[in-house]
User: Which sequence fits this backbone?
């Protein structure tokens, strides 16, 4: 089966620090893949390169077979790639409904006029039922008219999930989405992400909560010192003695 | 019986018309690590922010018997309360060491003194990764590294009462073990009284002697502390 997302031999240096040294990975459609590694291993940098927010020094990124390495982030989003961020961010004065509608709007190219058109509401016609469904899926239906800035940390994480669902991208990446969530909500987020895979989406997530990794991921990639160190079925990677020594501890 | 370092009586706080804490009362014994758990949105962060004076509140807050209600956040810091927020609050364009210097200068002491150097070395001993990154811009470090720096900023002046809001968020398992050991060591060796808000129940149960549950704006003690936490299906209970 063709990879939904493929990263080939990516290198990245920030000043004197080599963050990625030949990182490669393949993400399959209809599967959930976990990306794990120590703090500073380069996981978020890799997601930034995949989503076009950071330019790699060398290496290539393919989305459903197409080389997207030179495309800006908005163009990658249009082609079916979405991501959430480790550091929660939202439009604080938007209502939750508006924030989800905005995410569901085809990505603008940063053109000021087109952004104004969106702000004027021209791009969000007949999105109501779909947004309502997403809000219910993410347990935010009771907060639809609440300003995003008033949400708790956990609710903001759910909003990020809702925005990713609204994008409806073929490849969806999540950066530590479950961090800071209570266990009951984590279980719910797991179910939503599993549903995405059942719909044929490719799901890639960065996570330190190993229970989530075990519950959710069919495949696991362990990144160490900027390069792929182990990859394969999740249980095999997590039981690898070197992964235990370098990442899990006793 | 160990005396209380912190005693809070009928504390109420919220945002606009939204009431979060509703006459919550709690006490924390001196020299203990107290875990604070509750569902997302229950008001755990609001409680810590109210204790630090970052949001207005009604009710009484006593630190070692002295009221701190009317004090500014800086004055509360001078009184010995230190708060490490859930978000990584670091200065992204400053180096690790410059971040520590700025935090050190918030109190009337001058950086560059032997005392500051000694404090830096102490903190680098607690978090060796920061020593490796001491000249690196904080914003260019990983999320987990920024988190350990944020915790260091909270420790730069030795606090009497340390408030940690989900300190393990974004940290690798090995680093979580190390951080929890560090919190235990701070408590055992330096007597730093600590409130830890945490969703990571397994890690919390290893260090928390006392445990409180915040739900529906009220706070109550869970008898049995960390041991009870480890043995109960606490989230089903909640």
Assistant:
């Amino acid at each position: 089966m063709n990879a939904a997302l493929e990263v080939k031999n990516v290198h990245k240096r920030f000043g004197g620090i080599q963050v990625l040294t030949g990182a490669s990975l393949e993400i399959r459609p209809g599967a959930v893949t976990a990306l794990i590694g120590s703090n500073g291993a380069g996981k978020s940098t890799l997601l930034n390169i995949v989503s076009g927010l950071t330019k790699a020094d060398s290496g290539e990124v393919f989305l459903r077979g197409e080389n997207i390495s030179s495309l800006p982030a908005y163009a990658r989003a249009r082609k079916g790639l979405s991501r959430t961020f480790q550091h929660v961010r939202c439009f604080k004065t938007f209502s939750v409904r508006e924030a989800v509608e905005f995410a569901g709007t085809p990505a603008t190219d940063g053109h000021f006029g087109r952004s104004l058109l969106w702000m004027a509401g021209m791009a969000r016609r007949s999105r109501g039922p779909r947004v309502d469904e997403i809000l219910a899926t993410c347990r935010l239906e009771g907060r639809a008219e609440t300003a995003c800035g008033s949400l708790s940390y956990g609710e903001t994480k759910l909003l990020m999930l809702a925005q990713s669902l609204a994008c409806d991208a073929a490849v969806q990446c999540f950066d530590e989405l479950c961090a800071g969530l209570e266990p009951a909500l984590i279980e719910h987020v797991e179910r939503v992400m599993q549903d995405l895979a059942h719909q044929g989406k490719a799901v890639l997530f960065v996570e330190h909560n190993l229970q989530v990794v075990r519950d959710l991921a069919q495949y696991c990639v362990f990144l160490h010192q900027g390069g792929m160190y182990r990859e394969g079925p999740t249980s095999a990677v997590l039981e690898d003695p070197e992964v235990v020594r370098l990442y899990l501890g006793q | 019986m160990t005396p209380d370092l912190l005693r809070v009586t009928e504390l109420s706080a919220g945002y606009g018309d939204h009431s979060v804490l509703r006459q919550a009362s709690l006490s924390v014994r001196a020299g203990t690590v107290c875990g604070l758990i509750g569902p997302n949105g229950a008001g755990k962060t609001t409680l810590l922010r109210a204790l630090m004076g970052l949001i207005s509140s009604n009710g009484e807050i006593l630190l070692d018997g002295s009221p701190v209600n009317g004090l500014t956040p800086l004055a509360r810091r001078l009184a010995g309360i230190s708060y490490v927020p859930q978000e990584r609050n670091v200065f992204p364009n400053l180096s690790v060491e410059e971040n520590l210097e700025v935090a050190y200068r918030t109190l009337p002491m001058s950086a560059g003194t032997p005392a500051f150097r000694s404090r830096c070395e102490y903190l680098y001993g607690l978090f060796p990764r920061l020593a490796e990154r001491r000249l690196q811009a904080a914003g260019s470090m990983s999320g987990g590294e920024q988190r350990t720096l944020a915790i260091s900023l909270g420790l730069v002046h030795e606090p009497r009462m340390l408030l940690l809001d989900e300190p393990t968020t974004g940290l690798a398992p090995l680093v979580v073990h190390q951080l929890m050991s560090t919190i235990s060591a701070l408590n055992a060796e330096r007597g730093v009284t600590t409130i830890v808000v945490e969703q990571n129940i397994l890690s919390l149960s290893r260090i928390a002697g006392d445990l409180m549950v915040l739900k529906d704006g009220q706070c109550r003690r869970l008898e049995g502390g960390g041991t009870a936490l480890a043995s109960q299906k606490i989230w089903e209970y909640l």
